[in-house]
Design a protein that fits this description.
mainly alpha, about 60% helix, three-stranded antiparallel beta sheet, globular
Length: about 160
């Protein structure tokens, strides 16, 4: 009898874990795409930034909104159009300066999403560049500035952690 209860308990907690993982999965995929765009801009790689931005648009358009909780759905819908717009413009341009300009707005919208939903099990660092007066998100506390690349790679600070 004890082993049946133990097995039932394990199955119950496993199902909770899988359900929680599925709920964050679309957001963690978007976050990974966001980081790919950011990292390409850090490297001043306009071609990769454009490719990764196009992948972001595909990923966000593929999210099954019926799988999201009401709160997550509402949070995503509040920024969805702006995220697609900005990522689309990053994808269409090969001009790193224009990509970085759109990335600023893109990051503001993505930060709003990060504040409203759980994007990842890992910490998400919101960083700030005082020269650009702009924010971005990073998977690391170490600053690597996407707005200036190698010209000012470490310019900035961690402003918040989600």
């Amino acid at each position: 009898m004890k082993s049946i209860i133990a097995i039932a308990t394990i199955i119950f907690f496993f199902n909770l874990s899988v359900t929680a993982q599925k709920a964050t999965e679309p957001f963690s995929q978007l976050l990974a795409s966001y980081y790919d765009i950011k990292n390409a801009l850090v490297k001043t790689d306009a071609v990769t930034a454009a490719t990764k931005a196009a992948e972001f648009v595909t990923s966000i358009n593929a999210i099954d909104m019926n799988m999201l909780s009401e709160a997550d759905h509402k949070a995503l819908m509040a920024v969805n159009e702006k995220l697609v717009f900005d990522a689309g413009h990053i994808a269409e341009s090969k001009d790193i300066k224009k990509q970085r300009d759109y990335f600023q707005s893109f990051s503001d919208s993505f930060s709003a999403l990060a504040k409203a939903v759980k994007l990842s099990e890992q910490p998400v660092y919101q960083q700030y560049c005082p020269m650009k007066k702009a924010y971005w998100l990073s998977s690391e506390a170490t600053v690597k500035n996407p707005y200036y690349g190698n010209a000012m790679l470490t310019c900035g600070k961690v402003a918040a952690t989600f």
